[in-house]
Amino acid sequence: MVAPDGTEASTGAATAREDERQLAELGYKQELSRVWSGFTNFAISFTIISVLAGTFTTFFQAWNAGGPVAISIGWPVICLGVLLVAVSMSELTSAYPTAGGPYWWAARLGGAGWSWFTGWFNIAGLLGIVASVGYGAAFFLYVLLGLYGVDVFGINFGDSAHALSETFLLFLIILAVVTLLNIFSGSLLATLNNISVGWHVLGVLAIIALLVFVPDNHQNASFVFGHRINNTGFNNGGVGGLPFWFLVMPIGFVLTMYTQTGYDASAHTAEETKGAAIAAAQGVWRSVALSALFGWVVLLALLFSASNEKGITDAGGGATAVITTALTNHVWAAKAIILIAVVGQIFCVAAGLTSAARTWYAFSRDRGIPGWNLYKRLNHKRVPLYAVMAVSFWSLVITVPALWGNKAGVAWAFGALTAICTVGLYIAYIIPVYLRYRHRENFQAGPWTLGQRYRWINPLAIAFVVLVVIAVDLPFSHKAVPWNDDFDVTTVNYGPGVLVLGLLVGIWWKVSAKNHYTGPVRTIETDELGRVIEEPPPPAGGTGPPAPAPAK
């Protein structure tokens, strides 16, 4: 409500003016609609992290590489490291609340070269989010339709004869739906993100209740917090000694690291958020903290329900195997859990596409992407239409290999997408953190700041990411090592491919990009075609306003 004296209205107007002033100082006109609240800004990052997506779709990774101990203990420990990265990014978001996010921060703190590399790593990671979460949602939807025995238009989801092609079809449908949502309404997306928070919170509580009260049997605490599994083939399947702790267990870190990605969305949507210098900064770290708590509780519920270890392992070690084996006599509950997860995952895909499109738009606005003049355009709803379509298209392209599977009929490309996403994003996250630390006391902080705590938080965050990137790039199994007798190309970890991308981007930079990419372009002084607007000098001897520009 607005007070009779108009206090609330004037406060809102003052906030809007301050937001536009801050954006103008960064060199940009207010072009995107600034209609998002601080809660909505938090909601998009919370939705992209999505404990109903990452914790379910990559559960198998930690189950097979470490077992319950890698999940129950590994999750909270790794989340503490992620939180160090998040608060470091929050400080940068507050200082530079622009849609460019990491690549823009790198430009301000390190120059065009740093920005170029950061931008492309960020783009690669965000494309990986849209592709991997979209495909993961399609897989869970496939399982759900199979439980219901759906047979429609000649497609029988009740059998597994065409599992890969049918899952890919569902992926296409999901991608088309979220693309249309992103194109036609930014305000609707804001509403959906708000709804998504409620869905995730209530959904987690519902899943916990179903897994606590419905299964006939549960595991004990010693299994959940102490049992080890090694299905990687390394160390001859042993669960002790240095090879287990420093080779097998780190492979399972993918579960946590992949889930806890995408929180840069709060930075990318800063130009659409009211009071962004504080609200967007808080959105980054709060989404990570709350997801860490909710994700851990969900994972514990799954582990306590994992009473059929052999059945779960034989089925691949995934969350769906835990759910279906625990609820064999209560199929209705299994259906409910998977339905909750599928809806949450679709929310996640939509939010991921929003974040990726805003990054694509911002990087194009600064002429970092070929065809930038097209991708920087907004439609009549002030949505970056062509950027949305580009992200959707390339997400589809990199998922095409999921049409082929390994001998077990599993789409090996999903593991590749999760690794690419994780490595790409964390490299993009940590580059500007390193540059900020290098500036030390010369860094001009925004209203949300770490203060002197940056002295220990930034170095720890940098060290954490270095270790995690190494861990995520390790071979996922004994079969993934080329010189081993049992080598299978479909098991290879393609995470290091992001580093190859970095090499190609570096060559591109040296050959040509350095000649045309100069970092952020001040749109506050350019027209819609990107041409610099130059005001003519005032008339000689006069002090009045400048004369109008000559007609063209």
Helix content: 55-70%
Order of helices and strands: HHHHEHHHHEEHHHEHHHHHHHHHHHH
How many DSSP helices?
Answer: 23
Profile the largest sheet. Answer: 2 strands, antiparallel
Mean pLDDT across all residues, rounded? 87
Strand content: under 5%
Q: Label the structural class.
A: mainly alpha
How far the N terminus sits from the C terminus, by CA atoms, comes to 49 Å
Kindly state the number of beta strands.
4
Which sequence of strands runs across the widest sheet? 1-4
Low-confidence stretches: 1-8, 534-552
Described by the principal axes of the CA atoms, the overall outline is globular
Alpha-carbon Rg, integer = 24 Å
What tags apply to this protein structure?
single chain; about 550 residues; mainly alpha; two-stranded antiparallel ribbon; 23 helices; 4 strands; about 65% helix; globular; disordered N terminus; disordered C terminus
Quick overview of this protein structure:
The chain has 552 residues and is mostly helical. It has 23 helices and four strands.
List the helices and strands and how they pair.
Layout: H1 7-25, H2 38-49, H3 54-57, H4 59-64, E1 65-66, H5 68-72, H6 74-95, H7 102-110, H8 112-147, E2 151-152, E3 155-156, H9 163-184, H10 186-213, H11 221-226, E4 229-230, H12 241-251, H13 254-259, H14 265-268, H15 276-305, H16 309-314, H17 319-326, H18 331-365, H19 372-375, H20 385-399, H21 413-439, H22 454-472, H23 497-511
Antiparallel strand pairs: 1-4, 2-3
Helix pairs in contact: 2-10, 2-15, 2-18, 6-15, 6-21, 6-22, 7-8, 7-21, 8-9, 8-18, 8-20, 8-21, 8-23, 9-18, 9-20, 10-15, 10-18, 18-20, 21-22
